[in-house]
Design a protein that fits this description.
- It is a single chain.
- 49% of the residues lie in helices and 6% in strands.
- By secondary structure, the chain is mostly helical.
- It has a domain at 284-376.
- The chain has a two-stranded antiparallel sheet with strand order 1-5. It has a two-stranded antiparallel sheet with strand order 2-10.
- Residues 1-35 have low confidence and may be disordered.
- This is SusD/RagB family nutrient-binding outer membrane lipoprotein.
Length: 538
Amino acid sequence: MIINTHKKLILLVFAAFLLVRCDHFEELNQNPVTSTDMDPNLMLPTIQLQLSGGQFEQLRNGFIYSGEWMQHWTGEYASTEYGGKGVRNDAYMGALWTAQYPREVKNIVDMVERTTGVPENVNINAVSRIMKVYIFSRLTDLYGDIPYFDAGKGYYTRLFTPKFDRQEDIYNHFFEELDGAVKSFDASQKAITEDFYFEGNIEQWKRFANSLRLRLAMRLTKVNIEKAEQQAEAAIALGTMQSNDDMAVMQHIVTTWRGGTFGGNGVSYTFMNTSTTADESLFRMCSTFASYMEDMNDPRITMYGRSYLKSENRPDDITDEVFDVVGSYTQMSLLPSTFSWEASSQGAAIDVEYNGNTVKDLTKLYQCLQPSNYIARIDAPYIMMSYAEVELWKAEAAFRGWDTGASVQEHFSKALEAGVKQMYTYGVPEVDESVVSDFVDANPIVSGQELEQINNQLWVNFALNGQEAWANWRRSGFPAIEYPNRDPGVNQSGGEIPRRMQYPQEELDYNTANAQEAIARMPGATDSWMNRVWWDKE
């Protein structure tokens, strides 16, 4: 999905204009006369761009906590100090909440409100409803009960302290909204413009909505299996993603501003500490992740991770040379919750031949697989939802005997192939088709291991989305991860992986009564990260 460069430049110029105008505070601080005079199509690209996430929430919720617990990436100090040791930090846990409620939630609610009941805007209204479900699903899966029905409506209702709705009620409304949005699209009405995901393609928006509905349906397998089946089959019948061409992808570009270089992908900023001139990433591939992919002979292992020397812009790729000496990608990774600086003292230093020269005494720190330049560059794309994920949900649905139109094996094979090929979106050089087919053929579904295989592959698919990996781990129990509990003396989770994020302190301060009412519904009436959200039934 290559996004129109003209559109991106328009957005960047618009953003730059807003920044330049920031010195006119009196003008900007005037209350708007109305909230109905902006074309909602101009709101859509801003929301899509924001959803790739800033480093603030991606680092804290995505890597320090959920990403560290899911053991894709380790080695960055805060991720191993807090996630790895099980240490609570209110600001870290509340990051997604404090970033998205005043940003995406406010904008998407406004977008829904201004387009509801306007016949010519039926298509952009459907898109806004789909995006609203996507935004709120991430929040409720992280925190449980949250403000939803009245959230973001302060401008319209003057209600600034919304109540916390029960997650079950929120999910029921998700399904109604997605079903209604898909069925409301009307090609005869005003087209969707300024769309970074699908360039206004209504059929692809429908497939995205149905695929999201399938994801949310599968969340319910522990708490309401009948509703999970009903919603999953309905989503599949209406039509989900059909190929990698249907993936929801946010493309990013590099731009300069006042002497600095910027991009929009929060994951990449996190990996490279916000700078294109960073000479190394603080993250390293975790041995849990590397070992699993190496055992499966998964070609994605060197698409996700590469070994680099410490040098400007990391051009010196020494992955193959290190492998020739070490002989194992698992050995080129770190144990869970290991600091990168500790890695320099682990294992023996080696010498490698590189570009006709011998690189001597190469420590473990530089032997290890860092996030590859494909996924770590700040103009890397961000995959909001992939076709491979959808086929894995269908594989599990088929295993459960639900109507998907194909067998477990057929869905699983499609997911493996799509999972490799979706990496080409990042600019990874394409591998020979035989490499992909050999990988698929070597990893068939095994009777009695279906759920483990399917959900382990979802874990691989979510290697850059720790929050989704953690959500599915809580639902499925896979992969079977052992919590390393590096420092039992400071661990605040009892040596177990937490089950939710706690509410941010500012919400407890400014929306006290409603927050306390939600907390009173929790076990022990405490806002504990060991309490489970509604669908995570024990």
